[in-house]
Amino acid sequence: MSSFTEKDVQLLQLAYYFVSDCQYQFISTREAQDEIWLGNPKHPEYPIIRLSQTRLSTVFFDKTRILKIHQAIRNLFRRNCDLLDIHLSDEIVEDQEEQIDLVTISPQTVSDPQLTAVFPGIDHAVQPIQDPQQEYDRITQKLSELQRQRAHSTQKKSPLQPPKATMILMGICIAVYLLSLVFTFMFKNLGGSGEVSVAVAVLLGGYYKAFVVGANEYWRWLTSAFVHVDFLHLLMNMMALYNMGMLCEKLFGIRNYLIVLFGSILFGSAFVFLGSGNVVAMGISGGLYGLLAAFLVYGIQTRILFQPQLRTQFLLILMINLMISLMPGVSLAAHFGGFVGGLLISVVLTRNDSWAQLRKNTMVALCVAVVFIGLKTVEPKARELDAIYPGTDRMIVEMLRDLHLDFYGDHLSKKMVETYVGSSL
């Protein structure tokens, strides 16, 4: 005697339609009963579908559990969408539930005719069953074969697609580093190796408060992230960028990934400007700390950091980076600023409905922080230089003239003289 009912097999028929024709995947949920959850994060209208063989009335009593599962999948997909809840029934849908699009389907009818426009062929997906056991065996075999084909197709492709945006950023950093080697060799006669390296770093876009204040070169807040003149510094940052980029670019998408990275870099530079004297700074570590903060937000939002093993690994990474921040010659201000910026920006970019109020409050906090930084930046006290380095300035101007960029060198010379004459030093 068959242990499967007609509805059990029809549920598999419907699932097979979505998996084979609409590129959905099964989603395993521990709490699911008499139901199948499917997901396709690329579907424009219904990334998440629940198939059920229960009556419509059960949704009212089971809504809390259903929405809890739906929210968890939404967080994973980072999609703000309603749930398509399809029931194997010939009932008439009279009332809709909030956040849930209720539809009934049977071999004879689909309660919402518009669904056939979104999913062509769905009206023929469910068929009457003569022998449930035989039909069950047939569909499970077809599903297994489909899964094997997809697994084989995936294996043919590169299992780890390189993060495109991250690779481009790494390419820029490496290109700037190689250019720094060329310039350091070209201008080695202008001074000691350390002095020349510092001047070359500024020449290539490194942060230098004297030029930011004197010539209003605030673009250095961003370009300094791509400047590295020490191989070990470059190597460590590129390894960290690749690992974090591989993860964050996939989790957040390229647009949000770059927003968090660049925003964190700017926040880090702003903290250096307001908290440090006339220093030269370079490197992308402020942005890396922002990505670390963004992953923290993602881990809390999706609750993956509540898993003991992942939480321990994340805390270990955080402690290692904190120890690095306290080492001599490392800008704690840039790291802290990058972390704060990444934290604020990543919360604003979340789509979790339960975080709606937090997201609004964070948006206000982010705007206040930006306005505060802007106002503090123009204050005379913040623009004062605690020390001046005319030798470094002259070296940079000489490099520019040797590169036939006299107009820029003359511009810097004029601006720095005006700045230093007006300085109290």
Automatic annotation (TrEMBL):
Q: Which GO terms describe its cellular component?
A: membrane
Give the main location: membrane
Q: Which UniProt keywords apply?
A: Coiled coil, Hydrolase, Membrane, Protease, Transmembrane, Transmembrane helix
Membrane topology term: Multi-pass membrane protein
Please name the GO terms that the record assigns under molecular function: serine-type endopeptidase activity
- Protein location: Membrane
Instruction: Kindly provide the name given to this protein in its UniProt entry.
Output: Rhomboid family intramembrane serine protease
